[in-house]
Amino acid sequence: MSTTKHARIGEEVWKSRVDKVNAELVTLTYGSIVQQLCKDLEGDYTEVNKQLDKMGYNIGLRLIEDFLAKTNMGRCNGFRDTAESIAKIGFKIFLNITPTVTNWSADNKSFSLVFEENPLADFVELPDDGRAQNELWYSNILCGVLRGALEMVQMQVEAHFASDVLRGNDSTEMRVELIRIIDDELPPGDE
Amino acid sequence: MASSLLPPRIACVAIIGKKNSPLFLSTFTKSRDTLFFHFLIHTTLDIFTLRLPSKTNGDSDFGLLYAVDEELACYGWLTNTGIKFVVAVENPTSSGGEDLKPVFRALQTAYIRLVCNPFFENDELGAIKSKRFQKEVGDIVEGWRPGSRGE
Fold it and tell me: Which interval of the chain is the signal sequence (chain A) (predicted)?
């Protein structure tokens, strides 16, 4: 599928088949989740990242069903096609943003998503405690979502943020790497 | 008088909390020291209290609070949540209050962005330390052109 086609599907689904919700509601809800995690885990930002990722993973496992139902997408034609679908359809219909797919590795197994805007991080200024700027990945839930969603369609990926404007970087970039395609295994113990 | 030829300039921006605790104060002039402005802003609080009962038109603008002399005047803005914004202007003009409306609106927007930050502790105990907010206020002050009514 060509990239313009992805964009068109994303636009169409966004317009006709998605219930909209107030942006501040999402931003503030996510904000209080992250803030509460930071408090509960007493500023252990590595653990906060882990928890956010785990939450995202559980969202992704479910969200993929919704995604497939809304878009009527068939199988992707290779990992590049998957990347385009994530950026132009997935992010479009759920967050109304379209990150740029870029920085492909030579073996076509990993790419970067560069976010021009990030509705989760509106208003946010990381705590000035000298550590959050280096340790916390504020939007880490998104990594988990991708990991969970792709796992349900037989792709094991590893996703992490490489930079974030909240930390003072120039751009917000997520790195996604395909680990392996999960074969449809026989149920264990079935000999 | 020579000073009246100088264009109006914002000398100080202050934010005061619901319980009259100073949340933020930033000065943009070298002609007077910061302590002077702390006193100045403090005295405006009485005027807010005094005028509040007679204020019926429902908007936040308190206009000119008072003029110290020909060189300095204070303008105020009070939100329904009790947050007070005070701007002190050097070399004020007679229409200064009207001119400052966009400034107050921009300040309020910046303040909203500040309190919407999930990591912001809205406890009125500490002063506002946010660097982003500080910068935004600086930009608003720098960008102010008296006489323009634009946003």
Answer: none
Give Cβ neighbours of residue B134 (< 8 Å, ≥ 6 apart). Answer: B26, B128
How far apart are alpha carbons A169 and A164 in whole angstroms?
6
Sheet-wide strand order for A100-102: A100-102, A110-115, A172-181, A155-163
Q: Is residue B148 part of a domain?
A: no
Segments forming the whole domain that contains residue B46 = 2-143
Residue B151 domain-assigned?
no
Domain span at residue A30?
3-181
Rounded Cα distance between A55 and A62, Å, is 11
Q: Could you tell me if residue B6 is inside a domain?
A: yes
What is the tens place of the pLDDT at every residue in B55-112? Answer: 776 677 888 888 887 788 999 999 888 899 999 998 887 766 788 888 999 999 999 9
CATH number at residue A107: 3.30.1380.20
| Residue B109 distance to chain A (closest CA, Å) | 11
Contact B118 A28 (CB under 8 A): yes
- Cβ neighbours of residue A16 under 8 Å, at least 6 residues apart? none
Overall number of domains in chain A: 1
Identify the contact set of chain B against chain A, taking CB-CB distances under 8 A. 113, 116-120, 129-132
Q: Using CA coordinates, name the residue in chain A closest to B132.
A: A125
Mutation choice for A interface testing from B109, B116, B119 by most A CBs within 10 A: B119
Structural domain contains residue A191: no
First and final CA of chain B: distance in angstroms?
32
Mutation to test the B interface, candidates A125, A135, A141, A165, most B Cβ within 10 Å: A125
Judging contacts by C-beta atoms under 8 Å, the chain A residues touching residue B113 are 123
Specify the CATH number for the domain of residue B79.
3.30.450.70
- pLDDT tens per residue across span A57-89: 999 999 999 999 999 888 888 999 999 999 999
